[in-house]
Amino acid sequence: MNITVFGANSLVGRQLVLHALTKGWHVNAFDRDVTKLIDRENDNFTPVKGYLFSKDDIKDVLKKCDGVLCALGVAADGVDKSRSVGLDNIIHQMQANGIKNVMVLGGFGVLLDEEGIPYMDDEEFPAEWQLISQEHLSALQKLKNSGLNWTFVCPKEIFKADADNHFVTAENHLPKENATSSGNIALYMVEHLFEDTVNEKVIGIANN
Fold first, then answer.
1. β-sheet with 45-49: strand ranges across
2. Which residues form the NAD(P)-binding domain (predicted)?
């Protein structure tokens, strides 16, 4: 398999690269800064310096690609549109190149609470998380309209740690209030990238 990881230098992105390489896949690691990425001497690893807002950069990295993993970071100020606009560029180039499978890191604000209401619509939802949740929602809407085999993976919080396989998931809901390790998120995304069972689903994830 030949895959591209967008946001490869992010907390989850680095773990995505590691787990994809462990499976023997060829990994194109796309980011603005690729100088700190691991496995630079691995024959299956290709660091690609590029910009999400550049259609040509994305078009080039997706040539002969089988699947896409997105761990795009975004500031919480409401100005940074890296996730929604960047994902829009990725979707268009995937469509143009006939690439169907994509896993995207989202946020728990779009998940449903016990009453079936999105967390971000609850009056007690933290105001400082509202703008970034709007970005997640915009990204999700773009995926729903894309015609791709997409999955939106949503933790509540992320902490830096390797995978230990001790996590749980739930469709449309947050399975636990726990934070999730970057390694476990990446493990789930890599293992399910080409699985039809999670196509067009929003998945909540949390450490067990």
1. 45-49, 26-31, 2-6, 67-70, 101-105, 149-155, 201-207, 167-171
2. 7-195
